[in-house]
Amino acid sequence: MDTAPKKRIFSGIKPSGDLTLGSYIGALRNWVALQDDFNCLYCIVDMHAITVRQEPAALRRRTLEQIAQYVACGLNPQKNIIYIQSHVPAHAELSWVLGCYTMFGELSRMTQFKDKSRKNADNINAGLFTYPVLMAADILLYQADLVPVGDDQKQHVEIARDIAGRFNQVYSPTFTLPEPFIPKTGARIMSLQEPLNKMSKSEQDGDGCICLLDNPDDIMRRFKRAVTDSETRVAFDPENKPGISNLMTIYSCATGKTFDEITAEFDGHGYGDFKLAVGESVVELLRPIREKTADLLNNKDYLAKIYRDGAARASNLARKTLDKVYRKVGFVGK
Ligand code: AQP
After folding, report:
1. pTM for this predicted structure
2. What CATH number has the domain bearing residue 143?
């Protein structure tokens, strides 16, 4: 019998837009698969969401919907700690300390900062710049061993490791050095309209994006309109056939079929048949999630119990790390 303690996992999603098929395939689906073998904390990182201007009522609605969607996707609130970042003040407290051990130069090199500054040229705020420090605090507070992320978020885990390593060296071992945990397939789902761009919550480009709560008619319409190429062969070739390859990734995730099986299945068919099949597979994939989410949203007391219990459990763990950090840097204990 394996008696080694379970490793700890932390991950979060910003409530910066309605969760998409990309959020599900790239994050939530993998989280569910990890819940039996690891001790997991799954957070709704609302403090990260406000680095870009949010409409308050929409942010509140999406945060509650996101809790419901976590559970509807299969995350068990007893097995995992599911909570809202702003309910655990230790995230902000540790973030301040870690900011004093993070260099201006290393933050300037973060691709997400460059990217988001370009897209929000009228609001390049300090939070956007120090975002990776808060993310380091999210991870290091819980001494997480692994952080499941899409490949685009790898740089954030690397900077968290660098900050942790620096702090450990200045004082003494304090933080576990986290590792990124990147799933082998379906790591990146692209827009159906612009298959070179990621399907993104906050930039829902009309027909390019599928949200978890979309109705079947909208889903089918978007897949029928998905951008492909001028050939007719269903084959996996992300460089030359990004649209078809993205649809194949989605279909493979929804049905469990391999790329070879998919190519064989649609041999001699046009793209039209393929797009219909992908659309139908996604409608069936998302149907139970949509229905369960609606049920949960009708039971606000149950949702509140989940996020309050989660915050209490997370706070207990976080406090231990924060006390240690405060002591090491020389703050007088209360
Ligand atoms: N299209 C995607 N394909 C695969 N994985 C994805 N993720 C998001 N979109 C896709 C993964 O979901 C996790 C949570 O991401 P996040 O919300 O914290 O930040 P993000 O990656 O910046 O997500 P968005 O949708 O693009 O949000 P905005 O537009 O607000 O920045 C991560 O593990 C991410 O990889």
Report:
1. 0.94
2. 3.40.50.620
